[in-house]
Amino acid sequence: MDEQRMWQTIDSERAATADLLAGLTEAEWTCPSLCDGWTVREVAAHLSLAPRMGLGAALGAFARARGSFNRMVDQTARAEARRPTGELVAELRGIVGSRTLAPSQSLKNALMDTLVHAQDIAIPLGVEHAMPLDAAVVAADDLWRIGFPFHARRRLAGHRLVATDARWSAGEGAEISGPVEALVILLAGRTATIPRLTGITV
Q1: Quick check: 124 and 40 in contact, CB under 8 A?
Q2: Are residues 114 and 16 part of one domain?
Q3: Cα-based angle 55, 113, 23 (whole degrees, multiple of 5)
Q4: Lesser CB count within 10 Å: N end or C end of the chain?
Q5: Helices 85-94 & 3-22, crossing angle to 10 degrees?
Q6: Alpha carbon separation from 30 to 18, 25, 81, 106 (Å, rounded)
Q7: Whole-angstrom Cα distance, residue 131 to residue 138?
Q8: Per-residue model confidence as pLDDT tens digits over 73-106
């Protein structure tokens, strides 16, 4: 998947997620997402932040979080989430077409982040939102390669993950198989797609 196609997929995921958010009720905005401790509202807020946060702002947020990346991500999302829902939707729509990455973020990281967080919103709401297969393969590779913050190789040590709808596999050991998008969600530390996989139980 080349760079242009990755950006196009990020754009389409952001636009589709903004469309979904625009139609939610107030109750649905408060629905727990797949991200621990975050509702749909915090995930939506987080999704638009990366391309709008320059290096200076990121360093300031990191300092306020006392050097914790996870705390920084949580604090910035919660602060942004205080804004009206209409503004959150507008901000997400406004970054469609942006070619700016967050400080230290790679394009593959950005693609993976966008795909996973779209599911963090859609799955709890019962909305079917399929991942493009080629993008899901890139995201699965990225999640398997990186350590922090997902630690997929460590969590899934002793298993071989095999996609049944795409040419992707990783690891060694007892097989876990299923659709690549379900594997992506598992690699990202979520359990919501385990029922779609064989070889693993909650």
Answers
A1: yes
A2: yes
A3: 105
A4: C
A5: 160
A6: 16, 9, 11, 30
A7: 11
A8: 788 889 999 999 999 999 999 999 999 998 888 9
